[in-house]
Amino acid sequence: MKLIFVGAAHEVTGSCHYLNACGKHILVDYGMEQGVNVFENCDLPVAESMIDYVLLTHAHVDHSGMLPQLTARGFQGQILTTEATADLCSIMLRDCAHIQMQEAEWKNRKAKRSSGVAPHDPVYTMEDAENAIKRIVPCPYDKKIDLCDGIQIRFTDVGHLLGSASIEVWATEEGQTRKIVFSGDIGNKNQPLLKNPGKTDEADYVVMESTYGDRFHASERPDYVKELVEILQETFDRGGNVVIPSFAVGRTQEMLYFIRKIKEDKLIKRHADFPVYVDSPLAVEATGIFYKNETDCFDEEAMALVKKGINPISFPGLRLSITSDESKAINFENTPKVIISASGMCEAGRIRHHLKHNLWRPECTILFVGYQAVGTLGRILVEGTDEVKLFGEPIEVRASIKTLAGLSGHADKNGLIEWVESFKEKPRKVFIVHGEDEVCKSFTECLQVEHGIKAYAPYSGTEFNLLSGKLEYEAEPIPIKKKSRASSDVFARLLAAGQRLIAVIHKNEGAANKDLAKFADQINSLCDKWQ
To answer: Counting CB atoms within 10 angstroms of each CB, which of 10, 34, 66, 269 has the fewest?
Structure first.
């Protein structure tokens, strides 16, 4: 019984952990890396076609975003996650594939103007995303599920995102049972719409995030409505727009929740009818999914509105932009307005067009309402750059850059400690992941010294034996080196096709001899052609 740390080890994005138990190969999350990553990630310990299950904590791309690539490379197993996460992934993975294909097309157009530049392939296609979605198995909260012989799992709401969960895994091997808890991303308390994080009583081993393991939110819940009113009033009085780069799933719905309150109470003077544009097809679909899952996921305050017949995330003046023409028209409308658009870190999507139209205008405000990873355009703007490049053009930053303090879907240091100390007995070991390098180190030391918890922050490639309780391999950090792009993308695609073929062969074991012989002849014929 072995645990191997693959992604989000001393880094915040690209979550992926590998569990080998009861003869099964299991991944917990398979996320996309975003922003600048400092260390190399190890390869998956087995070929993608050998993976039996993926247990998915939530729908954010840094936890789910590489699932289509997994299927493209031969994965034929099940992806188990909560019902709300299944709904969200059905739109988010398609959206991610669309972005990958758009970016590849743009880079290839650009490459035509340069000689000797290899074609750029998307990380995966829409077909790959559709195939991944077909493999998703929705699961309820708080119910023990028999995964296979010797393994049970259970999902617990951790209040980070609609459908987010920590995952308990019970594995019995050689007459010994070990319980491993994967925290996923732990939610902040007292946030709009969602319930507070649920706790877990028992665990032998815990794999927990540390995103905000070095910082504290305000001791009292900030008055988000008041802060937002001040920003909107000042900007509208200047004749400017408030542009909000926002994650399409989660943060967008929270912003709509606040703005509904502002509109209902008529808190903006002289601009009471200000329009609010949600310019993201993904965000529009996600908002519908939020309402669909209200009973399981909304907190008491939001449910009280629902029971009165009030939609907590809708209001007069809300305009949903779906088509690209509708998106372009927004910036030709002179009325001061709010524009909410994805992506939240400004790395892709329609938000980059809105930044191009508004960053250079001193009357406008760019309001950040979520975490900005190192190296992302959002982080660069928050840190105070004077100029950025968008679509190949330099854009002077003259707009006011602000953040809505304290608005976070992540627990702070106190929240993380509260969650890990909720276990009735201290786990045998707590593995610290999903945090920037220094944060992982400092939070691990805090748990060790101040709380008497046996904590350890593994680097990618570290292997731990869950039965013996010992490290089998302690990986060293490998700094990322700049890679040259030649034909590597295409060759990786060819290797993936080969792995998929192996998986198909295994799936046909036991078929009729006549069919197998025909299949073998087809493969040999293909090999003869390319040798």
So the answer is: 269
Q: Residue 482: inside a domain, yes or no?
A: no
> pTM for this structure?
0.81
Any idea what DSSP says for residue 392? T
pLDDT digits (tens, 9 = 90+) for 464-495: 999 999 999 999 999 987 544 434 455 555 66
Residue 479 falls inside a structural domain: no
Indicate if the alpha-carbon torsion angle 91, 92, 94, 95 is positive or negative: positive
Find the length of the chain. 531
**Rounded to an integer, what distance in angstroms lies between the CA atom of residue 11 and that of residue 13?**
6
Of residues 13, 97, 91, 21, the one with CA closest to residue 55: 21
- Strand pairing category for 455-456 and 463-465: unpaired
State which residues form the domain around 507: 489-530
Are the C-beta atoms of residues 132 and 32 closer than 8 Å to each other? no
pLDDT at 185: 97
What is the SS3 string spanning 471-510?
EEECCCCCECCCCCCCCHHHHHHHHHHHHHHHHHHHHCCC
Report d(CA 129, CA 94) in Å as an integer: 6
What's the domain count of the chain? Answer: 3
Both 237 and 328 in one domain: the answer is: yes
pLDDT digits (tens, 9 = 90+) for 295-307: 888 989 999 998 9
**Contact (CB, 8 A) for 175 and 1:** no
**Parallel, antiparallel, or unpaired: how do β-strands 176-182 and 165-173 relate?**
antiparallel
CATH of the domain at 199: 3.60.15.10
- Give the N- to C-terminal CA distance of the chain in Å, as an integer: 41
- CB distance 56 to 70 below 8 Å: no
Tokens describing residue 433:
């992941």
Residues 132 and 71: beta-carbon distance below 8 Å: yes
Task: Give the count of alpha carbons within 13 A of 87, CB side only.
Answer: 20
- Find, among 140, 185, 30, the residue nearest to 96 by Cα: 30
Rounded-to-integer distance, Cα 232 and Cα 262, Å: 10
In a domain, residue 240? The reply is yes
